[in-house]
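Key result, reporting period 2: structure in, sequence out.
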């Protein structure tokens, strides 16, 4: 049933959803590209920092561990089949989300977009694609069991909606410079 699929999709994606939000809160300090340019443009830009990436990744992993601890009670209470994250999947979901966002900034700079410029489509799905790809590679059996076709479809529909609403919220709260 659709509600169960949505609940499972949100559960499995939480370790990938949290990192970008934590990076917004924790970001700052030395940029990953160290200020270097390529073809006259920054490689990544000041919006991709070591601190944001490290805290974001760590937060995503912690979320997966907390969900693992809560899983038996959540299954009991809801009757839904929430999965348990193997550690490797916790890492690839969280780090993949940060890496996807970093690769998107790389593409933005190559296409002449300044820091903070919108890149519709890429902004909303970059982190999902890379999280899922890394997890498929690193935890294949678990991935195929967990990310069934309906779950993947829900993830690709739900994520842009969640991304747009959380970013508008972060902008309204003054945490982010742009509403995307
Ligand atoms: N952030 C960070 N490290 C990351 C990702 C994000 O420090 N790996 C922080 C930065 O302070 C960044 C903010 O989160 O400015 C918002 O992230 P995002 O919208 O992804 O970056 P932008 O500043 O918009 O830059 P870009 O155009 O490269 O996406
Ligand atoms: Mg941005």
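The corresponding designed sequence is given below.
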């Amino acid at each position: 049933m659709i509600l169960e699929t949505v609940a499972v999709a949100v559960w499995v994606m939480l370790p990938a959803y949290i990192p970008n939000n934590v990076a917004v809160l924790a970001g700052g300090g030395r940029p990953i590209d160290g200020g270097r340019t390529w073809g006259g443009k920054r490689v990544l830009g000041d919006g991709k920092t070591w601190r944001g990436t490290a805290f974001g990744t760590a937060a995503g992993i912690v979320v997966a561990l907390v969900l693992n601890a809560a899983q038996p009670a959540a299954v009991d209470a809801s009757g839904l089949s929430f999965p348990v994250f193997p550690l490797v999947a916790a890492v690839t979901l969280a780090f993949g989300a940060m890496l996807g966002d970093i690769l998107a900034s790389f593409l933005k700079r190559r296409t002449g977009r300044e820091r903070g410029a919108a890149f519709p489509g890429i902004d909303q799905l970059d982190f999902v694609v890379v999280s899922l790809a890394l997890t498929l590679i690193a935890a294949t059996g678990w991935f195929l069991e967990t990310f069934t076709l309906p779950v993947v479809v829900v993830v690709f529909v739900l994520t842009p909606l969640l991304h747009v609403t959380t970013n508008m919220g972060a902008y309204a709260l003054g945490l982010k410079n742009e509403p995307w």
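The first helix runs from residue 2 to 26. The helical segments are 2-26, 50-78, 87-110, 122-138, 140-146, 149-172. This case is discussed further under Risks and Mitigation.
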